[in-house]
Amino acid sequence: MSTNGKLFVVGFGPGNFEHITKRAVEALQESDYIIGYKTYVELIQGLLTDQTIISTGMTEEVSRAQEAVKQAELGKKVAVISSGDAGVYGMAGLVYEVLIEKGWKEETGVGIEVIPGISAINSCASLLGAPVMHDSCTISLSDHLTPWELIAKRVEAAAMADFVIALYNPRSGRRTRQIVETQKILLRYRSPDTPVGLVKSAYRDRQDIVITNLQDMLNHDIGMLTTVIIGNSSTFLYDDKIITPRGYQRKYTLNSEKQTLKPHQRLQKEAEPWALDQEALTESAGGVGLLTKAPEKKPASYEMAMEALSRVKGQAVKQSIQPIVQQKMESVFELAVSPGVANKQFTPKQMMTLAEVVGEKGTMEYTPNHKIVLKIPTMDPEVITGKLKSANFLLSPIGDVLTLKACDFCDGEKAESIPYADEIHRVLGGMSMPKELNIGFNGCGMACYSAVMDDIGIVFRKGKFDLFLGAKPVGRTAHPGQPVAEGIEPEQLVELITDIVGEYKQNAHPNERLFKYFKRSKKIQNFSYQDIAPKINIEPAPCED
Ligand code: SAH
Questions:
Q1: Distance from the CA of 73 to the center of ligand 1, in angstroms?
Q2: Beta strands 6-11 and 77-82: pairing type?
Q3: Cβ–Cβ contacts within 10 Å for residue 359, how many?
Q4: 539 pLDDT tier (thresholds 50, 70, 90)
Q5: What angle do helix axes 381-390 and 348-358 make, rounded to 10 degrees?
Q6: The pLDDT of residue 234
Q7: Which of 44, 82, 83, 145 to mutate to test the pocket of ligand 1 (most atoms within 8 A of CB)?
Q8: Could you give the CA distance from residue 252 to residue 29 in angstroms, rounded to a whole number?
């Protein structure tokens, strides 16, 4: 039975004309009949011309679908409308069920087109911030067509599996028990602080948005036109927005013990592997002494976001970080350990402590910086640092921080300058920097721990210090630092280094290593940059930065 009739099953989105698709509008206007629930027909009335409207009550869904199929079979074009998406608790399934009952086949039967719309989970999420960023599910609390036991089971399974949950049909005048039961189940698995958003009539005249939490959600108005969005265990509140991070694995290191990943640490590839591809955005490799023009800085994603924000606001944006509501969860704690600034000897007890704190799940990696980097999944970093400290380890944060690399002072025989190394470590060690910064500190003119190859090289010689700045420590265009001063008086050293580091920290671009900053600024403190690098072109290697 082939006719010219056609069924459009149209999701018209949340209910305003800006959020309906072009195809949905075309279908409505092409149709002879519009069939739908009264309130919905009223919402789209403004888009219609001379279509015949068949509007019915809420519960007459089956007869609506039957009528639509009947009219299509008579050769009419019929639009069956649903709010949101017609395939999400909408009319699409029912229309197919009626067709199937009649033995309909696509080849021979009336044409059907399901036109997608923005479902409530999406429209409501957009008004709350970004609560649905991770795995999520929708659950309808209506037990009109589904037994409550099954709904409760699904709520429990979703709670257990830490899904972000969007509750549709959460409550009606008659149906009030389900949302109470649902809250009870959720509280068995999630913190009472879990952010919850209640959105009523999204993108309609009576739109109402409430940000609350799992504990307090029932103290607010929840009705037929509300969608309830419940965060997962890592969802947080920021400036009255509900945000669910894209991933779970959080890292924290010594200098950011409390808040695991601050907004400015996010979206860095090393912290969040799912982040934007940073390599495509950061400066391409190349020996600094060989560049013919000043390196052009390409901003990383965070900077671009800040730039966009400042343009929108027409002002510079401070990197202010407000406290965020965060539940306690297991994170990967990262730190580096060494036996000491000058001491290179591990004791058996230290090795045993390492084995104990790293356990089965953690890792330890020996690095070129004479340190062992530990990565340990934990909820209690303080327990780990406590044990390591009592084994006399020196602990340092990792990442873009200042690290002091000292020699062994000939196993302590040339100990005269050690107090200065200790002092620099005490004052500056672990401080966060625009880019990793290593200070090499060697206790005699042999400089056998290669201080001149570090970002800042300090060499003790004849009771005074020589200073080297701007080494490029890695890459095929690696070069030592420039000797910028000789015979610095010991009592001036720490202050001078503090000033150099302070200037670099304040003025360098993010990700700009000290040698690049020195070349760009031509001066650090009173030390001038000498352009002495040979002009030979070497192809940049892809992993050099
Ligand atoms: N097909 C629709 C869902 C229909 S079920 C869709 O995809 O969105 C009805 C439920 O949807 C309501 O109880 C409410 O929970 C939700 N809903 C639909 N439109 C909404 C809107 N504009 N604002 C908030 N919730 C809405």
A1: 30
A2: parallel
A3: 11
A4: confident
A5: 170
A6: 87
A7: 83
A8: 56
| Rounded alpha-carbon distances, angstroms, from residue 313 to 225, 308, 317, 318 | 34, 9, 8, 12
Q: Is 83 in the pocket of ligand 1 (CB under 6 A)?
A: yes
User: Which residues sit opposite 113 in a β-bridge?
Assistant: 8
Instruction: Return the closest-CA partner of residue 358 out of 375, 343, 379.
Output: 375
CB 79 within 8 A of CB 95: no
Q: Could you tell me the pLDDT band of residue 298, with boundaries at 50, 70 and 90?
A: very low
Place of tokens 């890592």: 234
Q: For 466-517, how does the pLDDT look when each residue is reduced to its tens digit (9 = 90+)?
A: 999 999 998 888 999 999 999 999 999 999 999 999 999 999 998 899 999 9
CA dist., res. 171 & res. 225, Å (int) = 9
Residue 84 CA to ligand 1 centre (angstroms): 6
CA–CA distance, 213 with 98 (Å, rounded to integer): 41
Would the CB of 204 count as within 6 Å of ligand 1? yes
Q: What is the DSSP string of 48-99?
A: -SS-EEEEE-TT-HHHHHHHHHHHHHTT-EEEEEESB-TTSSSSHHHHHHHH
Decide: residue 249, CB within 10 A, 0-12 exposed, 13-18 middle, 19+ buried: middle
CA-closest candidate to residue 120, choices 205, 243, 227: 227
Nearest atom, ligand 1, residue 200 CA? 24
Across 116-159, the runs of DSSP E, i.e. the strands, are 129-130, 136-140
Assess whether the C-beta atom of 286 lies below 6 angstroms from ligand 1: no
Q: In angstroms, rounded to a whole number, what is the distance separating the alpha carbons of residues 304 and 431?
A: 25
Mean pLDDT for all residues in the chain: 86
Neighbours of 83 (CB within 10 A): 28
Which SS3 state, helix, strand or coil, does residue 155 take?
A: helix
pLDDT score of 325 more than 90: no
Q: Could you tell me if 300 and 306 are in contact, meaning their C-beta atoms sit under 8 angstroms apart?
A: no
Which residues, in sequence order, are bridge partners of residue 165? 137, 230
Contacts of 352 (CB under 8 A, 6+ apart): none
